[in-house]
Amino acid sequence: MIGTDYFDYFTEPQKAKDIFQEAFTNGFVVDSTLTLHHKKGKLTNILFNGTVFRDDQGNPSGVIVVSRNIAEQKWALDLKIANKELAHQNKVKEKRAAELVIANKELAYQNEEKEKRAAELVIANEELLFQNKENKKREIVNKELTEINNSAKLASQYSLSLIEASQDPLVTINTKGKITDMNEALVNITGMTREELTDSDFFDYFTQQQQAREVYQEVFEKGSVADSPLTIRHKDGKLTDVLFNGSVYKDYRGNVIGVVIVARDVTEQKRIATELIEARVFAELATEIAEEAKKSAESATIIAENAVKAKQQFLSNMSHEIRTPMNAIIGFTKVVLKTELSSKQKEYLDAIKMSGDALIVLINDILDLAKVDSGKMTFEKTPFKMKTSVFSMLHLFETKIQEKNLKLVKEYDNKIPAVLLGDSVRLHQIILNLVSNAIKFTSKGNITVSVNLIHEDDDKAIIEFAITDDGIGVAENKIGKIFENFQQASSGTSRLYGGTGLGLAIVKQLIEQQGGTIRVKSTIDIGSTFSFTLSFQKTSSDAELGNEDVELDTKLKNIKVLVVEDIPLNQLLMKTLLDDFGFIWDIAENGKVAIEKLKADVYDIILMDLQMPEMNGFEATEYIRNTMNSKVPIIALTADVTTVDLAKCKVVGMNDYIAKPVDEKILYSKIIGLLKKPKLAKLKETLKEEEVTIAKKIKYIDLVYLNERTKSNPTLMMEMISLYLEQTPPLIHTIKQSLAEKNWTLLGAAAHKMIPSFAIMGMSVDFENMAKKIQDFAIVEQKTDGIGTLVLELEKICLQACIELQEELNIIKNTL
């Protein structure tokens, strides 16, 4: 390495040069971080400590550098190397001193010879020449002597700089335990001067003096000691934790003459270690606290969930218990009102009906509020005609508005898309509450309902609904209060106008849970405007018929209804209503009796109460669907309209539900709606040879739905039938080809395109399910057993449907 560039051994040569220059500028440099690289590529992170050493005239001659290995921190080994180097330099010095003695002796001899030869100068010129040569030799020896002296001084300065460059306390101790030499770091850590430290007892500067002596003795016994923990005390009382590293040093004869000690300051490391231990303890404590908190939270959650369940169960029971008698009260009141009555009787019965309706409104408000609070309120997204839906609902208020001599003004923005996706039922509920309030608090003037398009893009339409009245108004400081549960603007309002104070609270919740906002502008004795905005998705689908009232169809005869109801009053009411419809009925007291009757007879539809003794409506429906494999339509008669029961109704296989007290128009609409849906009677199990013959006798299509949708418009019907005939055969071909080629993506897409056409052409839902199964198989891409059979069966059905539709198309053409 001698003669090479020192900076080439660093990964950052320029940084090393800068630090080296800093040492010359400042006289020293402390703890600069650098990285040395081994010739084989290994990297070592070091702390660079350097001190300038000077010649006799005080001029800088070079820099002594100590590079501490930060990773390993083997200071004892470094010290041994330094000692060896120092011993080596001493040996060199001693050798050169011995040579100097010899040279001096030679010089004395030469002087004597010179004197002799000077006397004999005249006699021997050759001797003079010899003496001149000897003089030159002496000059060389003198020069070498000067270099030896300089070398000795340099060695001394080198050793001193090496010691002073260390930032750790470094001290030499003789065999008696007395300090013989030290560096500046020991002065700083003890607060003593060099003079005070020299020849003092080394062990006096430790808090554990006996332990320090034992470590000192161990160095003599073993030759070295490493990383023994001790604590040095400063004269001001400050304590410094150190790691004690020591090694013996010897004279040139190999005799141990003392110990060299390096004390590494580990106060900061010890503090960090202590903090880590404390942090670990605190973390463990925090974890325990968190676990306890989690258990408490889980316990509280269970308690809260149980409380919600108990509340839900209470509301369910309350709803059932109140609705069941109310069903009979309101139902029979309606029946009696249809008979011949005196004016007084009619007046009394109207009062009974009005009170019953008010009680049902109260129950509905409480149950709606409970559903909103518990997060059970759900919102449908089905196609509906906005204008028809809103205006039909407003018809309900015409009688009340006329009674109060008010005027209903309807304003509708015709730019609103005809059909939108949303929850029309909840929209009705919101508008119904707001219009009811407007009528309630208005004695003269107008009620204005306006519907305007605020924003429209490709996906959605944002619509603003506003209900304005000329009523009593709301004070500005009361506006926030009217949206709270069981609150009205004042106690006087409640006393004069009645009501639960729940309507606006429910309205606010229904609007906000659909992402909308409600606003109020009001002036006392002038009137109020309640407005809200809702976003609806746009759709290309037609709006479903929904639950629109169906006029009494006297052509529908011989409809046989099984009423499953345990309460005699409700049984009598259902008999009366079904007699008015002209239907045939049968009564079963519970689910068990209903199953026996179904085994013995055939019914077109079942009206199923939910809560009955022996076997309730859920258990009976599950048995009918799963054990009897019957698809007879089932309508639930429920006094509990919470979402819990409605979800159960769907799960067990019920087709629809009606809330008690039963509205005869809704009941009739739902029965007719279910029975008018196209059905295909199941083929009886016969011999294989007879299947084709039977299938030919069965008509696959039923154009009732198509007639309804097109309003019997022959041109539109022909267009839709032609479209089916045009697209179906190619789709069948694509399905067969993609199955053969295992092109699952194309198979699924083709099956998906066919699915809507079955309902449009009045084909059985069983055929639609076949296409859905093929689509599902294609998505899975694995389960292929049976798919080939399904495809062949679907092909046969669709081709037969095409034949039947072609015949229908020809008939329609001939009638034009």
TrEMBL record:
Residues 560-675 form the Response regulatory domain. GO terms for molecular function: ATP binding; phosphorelay sensor kinase activity. GO terms for cellular component: plasma membrane. Its EC number is 2.7.13.3. Residues 226-278 form the PAC domain. Residues 155-206 form the PAS domain. Keywords: ATP-binding, Cell membrane, Coiled coil, Kinase, Membrane, Nucleotide-binding, Phosphoprotein, Transferase, Transmembrane, Transmembrane helix, Two-component regulatory system. The modification 4-aspartylphosphate is found at residue 609. Residues 317-538 form the Histidine kinase domain. It comes from the Bacteria. This is histidine kinase. It comes from Flavobacterium xueshanense. The lineage of its organism: Bacteria, Pseudomonadati, Bacteroidota, Flavobacteriia, Flavobacteriales.
